[in-house]
Amino acid sequence: MRKLILSAVGAAALATASMANATITLDSCDSSLDSCTVDNTLAPAQSTLAWHDSSVTSPTFNATIDFTNDLAGDYWVSLTTSTPELLFTALTITPITGSGSITYAGAPTSAITLLPGSLGIGSYHLSFSGNSPSGGAESGNLLFRMAVPEPSTWGMMLLGFAGIGFAMRRRPRPALAQVA
User: Fold this and answer.
1) What is residue 34's predicted lDDT score, i.e. its pLDDT?
2) How far apart are CA 64 and CA 130, in angstroms?
3) How far apart are the first and last CA of the chain?
4) C-alpha angle with apex 81: 80 to 87, nearest 5 degrees?
5) What is the pLDDT of residue 25?
6) Whole-angstrom Cα distance, residue 19 to residue 148?
7) CB within 8 A of 54, min separation 6: which ones?
8) How high is the pLDDT of residue 168?
9) Would you state the pLDDT for residue 42?
10) Helix 2-19 to helix 151-170 angle, to the nearest 10 degrees?
11) pLDDT tens-digit series, residues 81-129
């Protein structure tokens, strides 16, 4: 029994260590954009791709960003902008190799939320487009937030329940007093 518990603790620790480094990595940024950045400070629970374009010269714009995801799962994908007159018209996240994509092609909006979108481990091509009637600047960010708990979280919770059960099982039961 002791070997079984020690092996479960080791497996849970290994799963936690491998999940702790899951991130989104920026591979390339469209040359029309001034900057692209990735923020993984809350990874693996949340990662953010952000960009800025200070020279939108026509009423429409489009751009692409390539990134790599090293944690498979269901993500809440949210695209927002801080420029009031800017409206996104389309968003597509397509695997560079493989099939399946996450797509939004609804009414023009300043925020797009896709609930949830499934991303596997691999490289992806993000493309977005929109309208900015007065030109000027546009900036936005794409937030990837895990929709379900990580496997390591479930493993640690189950390990905790097993530890509590084991401790309760080993606790001596009080003897009841008997009347003679």
Assistant:
1) 92
2) 12
3) 40
4) 95
5) 92
6) 14
7) 34, 137
8) 79
9) 87
10) 160
11) 877 788 889 999 999 987 788 888 889 988 888 877 788 889 999 998 8
Cβ proximity of 36 and 26 under 8 Å: yes
In this structure, the strands spanning 46-56 and 111-119 are unpaired
Give residue for tokens 């509590």. 164
Domain architecture of the chain: domains with CATH: 20-149 (2.60.120.380)
Cis geometry, peptide bond prior to residue 172 (ω within 30 degrees of 0): no
> For residues 126 and 128, what is the distance between their CA atoms, to the nearest angstrom?
7
- Between CA 168 and CA 172 the distance in angstroms is 9
- Residue 149 CA to residue 154 CA, distance in Å, equals 7
In the block, residue with structure tokens 């003679």: 180
Tokens at residue 102, please? 């996450």
Query: Structure tokens of 27?
Result: 């591979």
Kindly state the tokens that stand for 77.
């994908």
